[in-house]
Write a structure and sequence with these properties.
Double Stranded RNA Binding Domain, alpha/beta, six-stranded mixed β-sheet
């Protein structure tokens, strides 16, 4: 019975250690706090910078990283692409759209060394349907663009933590 228990424990350890997952604690994070210094919106879509700031803050906090104006690490971003593309139409009315958002990020460490992360957001194409009244279409667009922004924030936080 004891050898069976040891075998099961050994097997579980081998399985878990080989799957790519690892347990991380706060001490293993590359930094404990970060400052989001600037988010520049070079698109015609209003308020993207505010929504991205909020999404980034939430993602960093989920990972145990404080967002603080006194932090040594500084993150800046330029959102340079926000597109709403038509995917399908029915009876000359647009029915399906996609939201594409892209940005470039720069992480500056306390010594002033910069690391650039370009074209973040490219793999996240969020589609939504809308063929009803304009207010319903705009509400769907807001939900889809918020999801695209959250996906962008999740991607950059993951890149910064697990690089």
């Amino acid at each position: 019975m004891r050898s069976l228990s040891l075998f099961i424990i050994f097997w579980l350890l081998c399985t878990v250690s080989g799957c790519g997952y690892s347990l991380r604690n706060r001490a293993s994070l590359p930094f404990q706090a970060i400052q989001i210094v600037r988010i520049e919106n070079k698109t015609v879509e209003p308020k993207l910078q505010d929504r991205l700031y909020k999404a980034l803050t939430e993602e960093f906090l989920k990972e145990g990283i404080a967002v603080s104006p006194q932090a040594g690490y500084k993150l800046s971003c330029t959102i340079y692409n926000f597109e709403l593309k038509l995917l399908a139409e029915k009876s000359n009315v647009a029915t399906d759209y996609e939201v594409i958002i892209k940005g470039n990020f720069v992480l500056t460490d306390p010594s002033g060394k910069k690391k650039e992360f370009k074209d973040i957001g490219a793999p996240f194409i969020i589609s939504f349907a809308g063929s009803g009244p304009l207010d319903e279409l705009l509400a769907s667009k807001e939900v889809a663009s918020d999801r695209a922004i959250r996906d962008m924030a999740t991607e950059i936080v993951g890149v910064l933590i697990y690089r």
